[in-house]
Structures are given as C-alpha cells and as structure tokens.
Amino acid sequence: MEKEKIDKRDHILDVAERVFAEHGFDGSSTRLISGEAGVNMAMLNYYFGSKEGLLVALFERRTSAFRSLIQNIGKNENISAWQKITEYVDAYINRVFNSNNCFQKVIHQEMIIRRTGELADRINDMIMQNVLELRKILHEGIEHGEFKSDIDTEMVVATVFGIKSQLINAPHVSSQMMGYDTQDPAHIDEKLKPRIKDYLKKLLKAYLLIENDNAK
C-alpha cells in the first residue's frame, strides 16, 4: 500500500478511535467519522467497508502492534521467564497508561456492552491472542522450574489486566484514592506508571518465584 494511502487510512482510524471513545460505537456513524476526518464517504467505505469494518481495523492496528512487542519478549532466549514477566509488565503499563487512552475507553465500552455475534468474536479473538502471550511466559516459567507449579495462571492474567479497569475506567474514584489526578499526563508518567510497575512486579515476584515460597 502506498505511503499516502497508509497515512490516510491511519488518519481515519485515529479519528474513528476518538469518535468511538466519545460517543460509543453504537452512538457513532460513518458519516460523523468521515466528516471529522475530512474525507468523503466513498473513501471511508473503500478502506473499511462499514462501521464494523472500522472497529475491527482499529482493534487490529492496536492489538497487533502490542502483540509484536510482547512476542519478541517471549521469544528472547537470553533472559529468564521472570525477566520476561517484568518486561511484559513494563510494556503493558507503558502501552495502557498514557495521556491519550481513547483506545482503552473503546475496549472498556465493548467489554461492558457484552456484544455478541461475529464482530464480538473477532474482537475477543484479537484480545485473547495478547492474553495467550502472557500465559505462554507463565507456563514457560513453570516448565523450567522457575515458577511454582501450582500458580493460577488465569488469575495472574486477570491481575495484570484488571488493574487497568480500576485505574482507567473509574478515573474519579482512582484520583481520589491515589490523591492526585490520574488523568493528568505529568502524574501518569511521574507517579502512576512507576507505582503500578513496582507494585505488580513485587506482587508477581512473591507469587510466582519458587525462591519466594515460604513453605520451603
């Protein structure tokens, strides 16, 4: 695809991401998105076909970029499973907690709607592919004798991904709890992200590593 076409396609997706975050998928329209993006309907339909096609393309762009990053972490044979976990945590928190979290709002909206059908299945499949990358690392640690054999891998995944739901999807509660505006870009970079990373790593280290098993 020519660079100009790629740039135009990405521009439409950027606008669609913002519109979906502000109005929800059901409250948005391709006409609104095309107007905001400054393109005609024919061009939008040429690239995406429909509003559903726009949403799928948006998820594909965001989830595939992160998947490539975490797959590289998982394939690195020069580091331990625990080091892979710490790098995964860093990559995930950096990806999710930023001043422009429109995509996270879109994910949240789709999850609470509990949409059914082909569109929902395609979105869930894309999200699950990234979940499975974390599970692969956990199982690797178990197989190599680095992690405890009785860890609950599903609950570990829920812990890592669940912290986002509390801190991003309930910003007013989170800000009051933390004592600062958790949506402020400066606070996100200087306070929130370092704190989450430190917490998750300490929590997971105590739970995963055999050396931290107090029963031994």
UniProtKB/TrEMBL annotation:
Pfam families: TetR_C_29 (PF17938), TetR_N (PF00440)
UniProt superkingdom: Bacteria
DNA-binding segment(s): 29-48
The keyword Cell wall biogenesis/degradation is assigned to this record: no
Family annotation (InterPro entries): DNA-bd_HTH_TetR-type_CS (IPR023772), Homeodomain-like_sf (IPR009057), HTH-type_TetR-like_transc_reg (IPR050109), HTH_TetR (IPR001647), NicS_C (IPR041474), Tet_transcr_reg_TetR-rel_C_sf (IPR036271)
Domain HTH tetR-type: 6-66
Record SUPFAM superfamilies: Homeodomain-like (SSF46689), Tetracyclin repressor-like, C-terminal domain (SSF48498)
Keywords: DNA-binding, Transcription, Transcription regulation
Protein name: AcrR family transcriptional regulator
Organism listed in the record: Mucilaginibacter terrae
Lineage of the species this protein comes from: Bacteria, Pseudomonadati, Bacteroidota, Sphingobacteriia, Sphingobacteriales
